[in-house]
Amino acid sequence: MKDLHDDKTLDWIGIPKGHVAIFERMLTVLLVIKETPIATNAEVQKVINVSTRTAQRYTSQLESAGYIKRKSCAYWDEHRFFLTDKAKKLFQVAL
After folding, report:
1. Can you tell me the distance from the alpha carbon of 74 to that of 55, in angstroms, rounded to the nearest whole number?
2. Closest CA to 70 of 41, 36, 35, 28
3. Collapsing DSSP states into helix, strand and coil, what is residue 82?
4. 1, 7, 19, 52: least CB-packed within 10 angstroms?
């Protein structure tokens, strides 16, 4: 058992469940983009049942991390998303 005053040790057993839930939602977003012919924020929002802003935040974070790329559509506020090679490696998709 670790000392309560020891902040140099990391106790992985006590990881908050919220972190796992966020990871699973991000993974679901990647799966939606992989499986949907025209993957947009609206599609992500419908599948994972979140607000528009939350879907935008997830796709923005995944884009910043290099897992997805964005292509602008005819409408200024809508974008299509595609998996990058980095994300394809996670799903073992042939390049």
Report:
1. 20
2. 41
3. strand
4. 1
Q: Are 47 and 31 in contact (CB under 8 A)?
A: no
> Residue 29: CB partners within 8 Å, gap ≥ 6?
44, 48, 55, 58, 59, 62
Q: What's the CA gap between 16 and 34, in Å, rounded?
A: 28
| Cβ–Cβ < 8 Å for 68, 33 | yes
Per-residue model confidence as pLDDT tens for the chain (95 residues):
455 555 555 555 555 668 888 888 899 999 999 999 889 999 999 988 889 899 999 999 999 999 999 988 766 667 899 999 999 998 886 55
DSSP assignments along the chain, one per residue: ---TT--SS--GGG--HHHHHHHHHHHHHHHHHHH-TT--HHHHHHHHT--HHHHHHHHHHHHHTTSEEEEE-SSTT-EEEEE-HHHHHHHT---
What single DSSP character describes residue 92? Answer: T
